[in-house]
Write a structure and sequence with these properties.
Strand content: under 5%
Radius of gyration: 15 Å
Oligomer: single chain
Shape: elongated
Largest sheet: none
Number of strands: 0
Structural class: mainly alpha
Order of helices and strands: HH
Length: 72
């Protein structure tokens, strides 16, 4: 996702990994797709990207931009 993340690169990577796992689990529960069909399977990548972006959006909404925007 473009833009600055409130938590930095490490937090963003951890959220991305958690989103991958969430996407795989949701794909399995919702569509009955086996999440271990293969690394190069398109459905695996779509589920991982969808889960990651979803968690990153939620993270950005919850944390917001906590910087002070006062102008001098």
């Amino acid at each position: 996702m473009p833009g600055r993340d409130p938590g930095g690169v490490i937090i963003t990577m951890l959220i991305g990994i958690a989103g991958d796992l969430l996407g795989g689990w949701l794909g399995k529960v919702t569509f009955g797709v086996d999440s271990i069909d293969g690394f190069f399977d398109v459905s695996t990548w779509i589920a991982a990207i969808f889960g990651s972006v979803t968690l990153l959006v939620i993270y950005r909404l919850v944390t917001g931009n906590k910087r002070d925007h006062r102008h001098a």
